[in-house]
């Protein structure tokens, strides 16, 4: 019934969002009056700006646009009722008449409420070096030049699924490196990082987007909202898996003197399949030595690889606690050596560390484990906040900027270049993305890119989604290649000084 309750809240959360009037989702309400006279096209783009000298997150995973398009932008999104509601709303909000009622009515009359906009984007799941164009937006009818940036607020929110998918994939690189080094294979990699973040995110919609973004890289989650998003918006019937897991309430409600009974009950209730039992309610070390390793030892040994007991420490220094726990388990249950000469607990016994996990600690823990001779096979990780919430739009410096306009039928490249921060400069002109002859992915500016080389695909035009991706395709695009297990050279170096004829190729470095 707790599951059911979660489900009910989820539906309520999503409902609240969809009942909000679409027209009230923008701050850009007065901009239509601010462009120069006779503008007929506004062309803007999204990128994760590259920071000079920054080395973290040098490549990003593009994910999440399809949800925004399906949910908010496709079909007949403008109606007379919405126009009336927005008119009243903004009259109250600005205390003057600034809402462009006439402009919106024209969308209704000319296009039956469908948006005359074209969006070109990198295929979802693609790995793109930071600092490149990821999608572009333009109006397809000169009357609606003001629409391009009207939808900015919504589109810039793409920072969130992109950042989560990118961070989740960085976890995967670290896990792959250690797993390969200490076991000789990548078996089980997709289950190494479990998403514990549902309760730690700011809203149901964030949970859905962030949870789905993690599922681009892994198959292990408790964030049910993400599974629903993968199902409803990315065509995946069941994108992730979980197991019965104890939490402190289900252990301590037995009373301090009956922790053994609480543990035993977990084994009774879930005799087959993996089961995870949080074991630090009182003393994790005593629990491992005296309960798991002694009183319930026979019950644990009875279990199989497919039904293993996964012990969960949940406090203390993650690396130190984990190493002490694994040593106690070795004393009680023994261990064997794998093909790489690293120690592995019996296959019916594993550990999951879900406390204090982030990109740094996971690397440190696995480093220390391998220093002590232990394979990464012995542990799973769970991550909440560091995966879904401890990030913001600056984590990847996400921005949406105008780079080209047409005035009186004449095109003009535009840009910003603030003297106070060159890294906030923007790209110029019509943009395309290509893989050059050195296999580097780069943005070609000023409209000189060849259409046949362009990696950007039209995904949305005049109210219709024209290209869709399934989670399966996205996962394939985001796959970890073997080269990532060694430090990658890919697009990490600043480009060598450019020949004059290459000056339009900026690759995010200005
Ligand atoms: C705008 O276009 C109109 C009609 O073509 C023209 O008469 C007018 O001079 C233009 N205004 C500006 C400021 O370019
Ligand atoms: C979208 O609308 C514009 C303006 O009406 C039109 O020129 C263009 O051909 C349309 N695109 C498609 C794919 O129908």
TrEMBL record:
- Protein origin, superkingdom: Eukaryota
Q: Where are the transmembrane segments?
A: 7-29
Principal localization reads nucleus
Its annotated pathway reads: Cofactor biosynthesis; NAD(+) biosynthesis; nicotinamide D-ribonucleotide from 5-phospho-alpha-D-ribose 1-diphosphate and nicotinamide: step 1/1
Q: Name one GO cellular component term.
A: extracellular space
Does Transport count among this protein's keywords? no
* Region annotation Disordered: where it falls in the sequence: 487-510
Q: What are the protein's UniProt keywords?
A: Biological rhythms, Cytokine, Cytoplasm, Glycosyltransferase, Membrane, Nucleus, Pyridine nucleotide biosynthesis, Secreted, Transferase, Transmembrane, Transmembrane helix
Instruction: Provide the top EC class.
Output: transferase
A GO molecular function term, named singly, is: cytokine activity
What the entry lists under SUPFAM superfamilies is as follows: Nicotinate/Quinolinate PRTase C-terminal domain-like (SSF51690)
Q: What EC numbers are recorded for this enzyme?
A: 2.4.2.12
The Nicotinate/nicotinamide phosphoribosyltransferase domain sits at: 191-430
Catalytic activity from the UniProt record = beta-nicotinamide D-ribonucleotide + diphosphate = 5-phospho-alpha-D-ribose 1-diphosphate + nicotinamide + H(+)
Compositionally biased, Basic and acidic residues: which spans?
A: 491-502
One of the protein's GO biological processes: NAD+ biosynthetic process
The Nicotinamide phosphoribosyltransferase N-terminal domain sits at 26-119
Q: Does the keyword Transmembrane apply?
A: yes
Subcellular location as annotated: Nucleus; Cytoplasm; Secreted
**NCBIfam families in the record, alphabetically?**
PRK09198.1
Q: What family, per the record? A: Belongs to the NAPRTase family.
Task: List the PANTHER family.
Answer: NICOTINAMIDE PHOSPHORIBOSYLTRANSFERASE
- What does the subunit section of this Swiss-Prot or TrEMBL entry state? Homodimer.
Q: What is this protein identified as? A: Nicotinamide phosphoribosyltransferase
Q: In which organism is this protein found?
A: Oncorhynchus mykiss (Rainbow trout)
């Amino acid at each position: 019934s707790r599951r059911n309750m979660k489900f009910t809240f989820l539906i309520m959360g999503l409902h609240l969002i969809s009942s909000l009037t679409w027209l009230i989702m923008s701050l850009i309400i007065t901009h239509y009056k601010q462009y120069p006279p006779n503008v007929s096209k506004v062309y803007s783009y999204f990128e994760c700006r590259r920071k000079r000298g920054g080395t973290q997150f040098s490549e990003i995973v593009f994910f999440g646009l399809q949800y925004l398009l399906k949910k908010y932008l496709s079909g007949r999104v403008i109606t007379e009722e919405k126009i009336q509601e927005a008119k009243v709303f903004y009259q109250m909000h600005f205390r003057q008449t600034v809402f462009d009622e006439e402009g919106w009515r024209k969308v209704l009359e000319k296009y039956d409420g469908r948006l005359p906009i074209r969006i070109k984007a990198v295929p979802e799941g693609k790995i793109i070096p930071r600092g490149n164009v990821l999608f572009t937006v333009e109006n397809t009818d000169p009357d609606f030049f003001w629409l391009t940036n009207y939808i900015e607020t919504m589109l810039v929110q793409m920072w969130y699924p992109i950042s989560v998918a990118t961070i989740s994939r960085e976890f995967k690189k670290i896990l792959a490196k250690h797993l390969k080094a200490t076991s000789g294979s990548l078996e089980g990699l997709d289950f190494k990082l479990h998403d514990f973040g549902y309760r730690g995110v700011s809203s149901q919609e964030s949970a859905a987007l962030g949870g789905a973004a993690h599922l681009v890289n892994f198959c292990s989650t408790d964030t049910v909202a993400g599974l629903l998003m993968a199902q409803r918006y990315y065509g995946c019937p069941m994108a992730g898996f979980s197991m019965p897991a104890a939490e402190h309430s289900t252990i301590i409600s037995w009373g301090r003197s009956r922790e053994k009974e609480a543990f035993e009950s977990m084994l009774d209730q879930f005799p087959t399949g993996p089961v995870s039992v949080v074991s630090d309610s009182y003393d994790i070390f005593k629990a491992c030595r005296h309960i798991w390793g002694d009183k319930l030892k026979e019950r644990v040994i009875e279990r199989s690889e497919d039904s293993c007991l996964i012990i969960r420490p949940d406090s203390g220094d993650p690396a130190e606690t984990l190493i002490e726990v694994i040593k106690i388990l070795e004393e009680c249950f023994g261990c064997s050596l794998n093909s790489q000469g690293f120690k592995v607990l019996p296959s019916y016994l594993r550990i999951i560390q879900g406390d204090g996990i982030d990109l740094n600690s996971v690397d440190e823990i696995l480093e220390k484990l391998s220093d002590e001779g232990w394979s990464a096979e012995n542990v799973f990780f769970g991550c909440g906040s560091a995966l879904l919430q401890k990030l913001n739009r600056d984590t990847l410096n996400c921005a949406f900027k105008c780079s080209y306009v047409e005035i009186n039928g004449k095109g003009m490249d535009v840009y910003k270049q603030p003297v106070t921060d060159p890294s906030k400069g923007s790209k110029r002109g019509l943009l395309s993305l290509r893989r050059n002859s050195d296999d580097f992915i780069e943005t070609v500016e000023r409209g000189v890119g060849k259409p046949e080389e362009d990696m950007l695909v039209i995904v949305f035009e005049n109210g219709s989604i024209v290209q869709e991706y399934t989670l399966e395709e996205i996962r394939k695009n985001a796959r970890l290649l073997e080269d990532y297990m060694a430090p990658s050279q890919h697009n990490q170096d600043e480009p060598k000084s450019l020949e004059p004829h290459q000056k339009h190729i900026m690759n995010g470095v200005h």
